[in-house]
Amino acid sequence: xxxAYWEVTGFNISYTDVQxxxxxxxxxxxxxxxxxxxxxxxxxxxxxxxxxxxLDPGHTFRAAVMFxxxxxxxxxxxxxxxxxxxxxxxAGGINITYSETEISSQLEVAMxxxxxxxxxxxxxxxxxxxxxxxxxxxxxxxTEWAPVANLTxxxxxxxxxxxxxxxxxxxxxxxxxxxxxxxxxLTTVVSADVRNCSAFxxxxxxxxxxxxxxxxxxxxxxxxxxxxxQNALWPMLDxxxxxxxxxxxxxxxxxxxxKYKWAVVAGDKLDPTSHFKRQSLMTVSxxxxxxxxxxxxxxGKEYVNxxxxxxxxLPHGHRFYVCIHADEMEVTYEKWPTVxxxxxxxxxxITVDLTPPSESSITIQGLIENVYQAYNRVGLAxxxxxxxxxxxxxxxxxxxxxxGRSSAxxxxx
Length: 413
What we know:
By secondary structure, this protein is mainly β. It folds into three domains: about 1-80 and about 365-410, no CATH class; about 95-195, Sandwich (Immunoglobulin-like); about 210-345, no CATH class. It has one helix and 34 strands. The protein has one helix spanning about 120-125, and strands at about 1-5, 15-25, 35, 40-45, 45-50, 60-70, 70-75, 75-80, 80-85, 95-100, 105-110, 130-135, 145, 150-155, 155-165, 175-180, 185-195, 210-215, 215-220, 220-225, 245-250, 260-265, 295-300, 305, 320-325, 330-335, 335-340, 345, 350, 365-370, 370-375, 380-385, 400, 405-410. A hairpin with a 2-residue loop joins β6 and β7. The longest helix is centred in the N-terminal third of the chain and has 6 residues, at about 120-125. It is elongated, with a radius of gyration of 32 Å. It starts with a strand and ends in a 5-residue tail after the last strand.
């Protein structure tokens, strides 16, 4: 489908017919076009929607309009053209350099420019991309999507920097995601480790001693105990949002002290800065002496299950930490004595989540029965179905034809 409209001013003779044709631009040319189909007579009209056309992806099309009196017609007046963009952008590689000081950190990003897969001319393929956004992930979103600022184009790459007010915490794998938009609103996301999460020669990501965990589900909001066999590995990732109100669990599988003090410490309802380095909550060697302790105890195992009865149920949306202490001690493995250092450590915290996401709705202004009508200062610009639309708001000149936008979604075919 191809839509166009026009406005006629300063025309002294009343025309009796409008004829329209669609032209396609040659790739790589400045202004070379050829006719897709012959002219169609519209009668007296100021807009039209042409269907049954083969508008190939990646090609630019424009309207050619002639105003006629009987068999005499003006020279064609042309719109500025619309490029068919039915596919999301194509992403390439991304390289990240991380640096930090005691009080700040920075990412230097070099990324292949996003492009359109259907446009063979490189510069035109890049020109379809409108903007980029970034977020930290792990793999869930750690930060809201933010626009990439101070972007530098360097031939086939773009360069930019992201600064933080604090150093990042690498007890988990932190990744940077970049989302690119083309001019019809289709997106592609590319991501990479901020530090190499799989490196082993020099370990870049070092898990915390204490890992938050959850057991199996018994009923809605009710969870089971966890069990960690002695000297066994814990195969699960750290939990951020347990769905239980009756139990908190944690493990510390890398320790071998066999004697620990533990405490559950209440925190803020939400911690939006969990991806930054922080000072340890363990300001004293006895976790039971910490502020905001709600339960504490001792164990000889490398895990704990802390139960809460109906009067103590964990409230939805509240945050808790599990902290432990182990004294320095000497143990003997076969014939070799080993000193186990004193440990004071806390988990990175969990937020109790007892409810499913709430429903919401999407509202598109001007959407009527799946048909979206967009207007500019001079009237109807274009009509498409169920897709983002960009409208050219440049005032029309005398005899000018507009197709309403510079790039088209699949629904305009």
